[in-house]
């Protein structure tokens, strides 16, 4: 683990209108970690991801991150342009300064990486939900991010597509980034099996408060979690109605 964290939050809080979406939060995330954000609806997972991605400023406190790092965020439903799958990826590269001919070559490589090379000329919005999420991953991967932020990336997919997307995320985590550093992953998920498969560390949020920050194995130890959050322990056991 590098000494300098990729992200450091110091008493970072977010207020959205009348709602305290996140209470003062202290947190460090290091390169190569795979961090799952877990908690009931409205517990603040998306807000925390938006805070890390710079889409949401803190209302108080500080968020610092390593300068010049490349990061990409994926949402539950990917935002795709009304053009072909290949152009969706190539345009992202072109906007980053690549020449159009190079962008198309790199985009094709990214589509191959996610098994969508056969769909390159299809209109992106006519792809299936799972294919669209793979396309969004290809677009993110093409940009060679050091940090990948995912907001429930498989929530709207069927079990087969879920597994495919999850396998790709796991493969990305095996590789190194262009800068030679390991990829850092932060993802929100309601799928506890997925959390077990992908995460090394779990942050459990309850009504905007970070109640548990545990290595994945300890998080799934109900007695351990019971100490910090009885509600969390019930949540993990699937007994929370
Ligand atoms: N634009 C907004 N204006 C006011 N309140 C908001 C806004 N967006 C989110 N909230 C509130 O902030 C709190 C945290 O929401 P957030 O979306 O971060 O939770 P979440 O854990 O991601 O939920 P879910 O699992 O349903 O996606 C909730 O109480 C939510 O209602």
Automatic annotation (TrEMBL):
Q: Does the keyword section mention Glycoprotein?
A: no
One term of GO molecular function: ATP binding
Q: What is this protein called?
A: Amino acid ABC transporter ATP-binding protein (PAAT family)
The family database entries (Pfam families) matched by this protein are listed as: ABC_tran
What's the superkingdom here? Bacteria
Query: Does the keyword section mention ATP-binding?
Result: yes
Xref: InterPro entries: AAA+_ATPase, ABC_transporter-like_ATP-bd, ABC_transporter-like_CS, ABC_transporter_ATP-bind, P-loop_NTPase
Task: Tell me which UniProt keywords the record has, alphabetically.
Answer: ATP-binding, Cell membrane, Membrane, Nucleotide-binding, Transport
Domain named ABC transporter: residues: 7-232
Family from the record: Belongs to the ABC transporter superfamily.
